[in-house]
Task: structure prediction
Amino acid sequence: MTSTAVAILWIYIVLLLAGGLVGFLKAGSKASLIASGISAVPLILVALAILPPLVAHIGLGLLVVVFIKRYMKTRKFMPSGMLVALSAVTDVALLYLHFASRTA
Result:
């Protein structure tokens, strides 16, 4: 994984954990805090090169599905719609960097 891809992944991880913390602080949602922590663990392991990058793509894809379901239920852009977009953009960026580094 390129250093740029790792940096993008760390930014996503921080935003994911911050979102869980905000959900807990604003709405008292322990589920948000726990879910963000559990979701961040495999991504952290990928960023540390302990797990292969494929794990990040699978994790981000699953998060996109989860956030789409939440968005369809609530019809509110914040936070579900934003997280769909952020997760998808992060995954596309990581895929682009992966394939760009293979052809260089």
